[in-house]
Amino acid sequence: MQTKNAPDRLECFKAYDVRGRVPEQLDEALAYRIGQAFVTLRKPRRVVIGHDMRLSSRGLADALAEGFMCKSVDVVDIGLCGTEMMYYATAALAGEDVDGGIMVTASHNPADYNGMKFVGQGATPIHGGNGLREIEQLAASGHLTAGPSPRGTVERPYLLPDYVSHLMNFVDTDALREFSFVANAGNGCAGIVVDALERMANVDFVKIQNDPDGTFPNGVPNPLLPENRGATSEAVRRHGADMGIAWDGDFDRCFLFDENGAFIEGYYIVGLLAEEMLRREPGAKVIYEPRLTWNSIERITQAGGVPTLSRTGHAFIKESMREHDAVYGGEMSAHHYFRDFAYCDSGMLPWLIVAGIMQRTGKKLSQLVSECQERYPCSGEINREVSSIQKALDFVRLQYSKEALVVDETDGLSFEFDAWRFNLRASNTEPVIRLNVESRGDVELMQQKTDEILALLAQVG
């Protein structure tokens, strides 16, 4: 495969992964060079490659594989899958000389985007701080050549049944049969797992937007956007389901709806899952992040666990999980990490485990989260574009630093007061600043302070 002239820097390389418009920022020639650069820097023996349903994904995955094989590296091509299936395969095959993996996906970005997520041996994350920048620099240089003979090989194992069986180890599948679930794959890749669970575990699903379709006929699969939640909510109510589940495109995040069709903020699911994982392993450490904290800390502590703070973002959470051997870690953005899933995030395990909690306790999902919602009402994450993120942080710091009881800068600014707290931080993936506010049982105060901080940000412009 011929390479074209490479720029000095590659706009599609981000802090944690690769994401850009196809073909302007990411094309098959660049994918080929990325594969070569990965080999040159990390010297793998075998690598896993998976891809999502985007129209450009198969071509990019094939070019990536060619970059590996031309340098004598064998490829395990697992085909159409979700990101966590690549994590699973890389970890499960570590004893068979697999020491790296790449998922071709742009998750919830628009249809004309694509990207890549990288892991090393055992599904350890590769990001800007531990090798991704070097891959970018080498791929950008164009100074890459094919390796010596023999050429690498490609195999295409069918790992879906093994992966689904692994998921089922986390929950009593008999309990799942007591419930009806609305499953909204958003025309992403989650539908292939929904179908497999339906066959293998006899789970009762009402399936909507289930077929993978890279044209996104029902819009980009991103349930964090309020306008994308209506189809799931309405289906739950119409079919009288016990729970609704919606996923993003590569299903590394799942979003839950209660039996009334109400969307449940991911913050409250973190506390619920932490409590359950600590029931299974009392005294373990649980990772939480700075954006919203009071409910998480309370639930972890009351369950006998050790709350352990980490910076927001999958690379930081995974490193903290491994460093502390934490049983679970959660982000309010609906990323949930499990030690027994190679310390990686899964979009399937959360809803399966929550269903198990419902069966064990006899409570509906709304009952499981209602007390926490009342005790710690939150704003949900609010994004704002500002002229200067640093200027905005400095301006807000000046307004609140004298009154704050606690100031924490683990990630952005976290200020705590008697009855309310907030976190303001720069996005790791977008040019915006993100605000989260919570209070101790006072919705009006939470809303008042949210409006107050947003007005300050508007002054920065």
CATH class of the largest domain: Alpha Beta
Proportion of residues in extended strands: 15-25%
Individual helix count: 15
Average pLDDT over all residues: 95
State the end-to-end CA separation.
47 Å
What does this structure look like?
- This protein has 461 residues and is an alpha/beta fold.
- It folds into four domains: 18-158, 3-Layer(aba) Sandwich (Alpha-D-Glucose-1,6-Bisphosphate, Chain A, domain 3); 177-257, Alpha-D-Glucose-1,6-Bisphosphate, subunit A, domain 3 (Alpha-D-Glucose-1,6-Bisphosphate, Chain A, domain 3, 3-Layer(aba) Sandwich), CATH 3.40.120; 266-372, 3-Layer(aba) Sandwich (Alpha-D-Glucose-1,6-Bisphosphate, Chain A, domain 3), CATH 3.40.120; 382-460, Alpha-D-phosphohexomutase, C-terminal domain (TATA-Binding Protein, 2-Layer Sandwich).
- The protein is built from 15 helices and 20 strands.
- It has helices at 28-42, 57-69, 83-92, 132-141, 160-168, 173-176, 190-201, 230-239, 266-280, 294-302, 314-324, 349-361, 365-375, 389-400, 443-460; strands at 18-21, 46-51, 74-80, 98-104, 113-120, 154-155, 180-184, 204-208, 243-247, 254-257, 285-288, 306-309, 328-330, 336-338, 344-345, 382-384, 406-408, 413-416, 420-426, 433-439.
- The strands form four sheets. A six-stranded mixed β-sheet has the order 1-5-4-2-3-6, sandwiched between helices. Strands 12-11-13-14-15 form a five-stranded mixed β-sheet, with helices on both faces. Strands 16-20-19-18-17 form a five-stranded antiparallel β-sheet, covered by helices on one side.
- The longest helix has 18 residues, at 443-460.
- The radius of gyration is 22 Å and the shape is globular.
- Mean pLDDT is 95; it is low at 1-6.
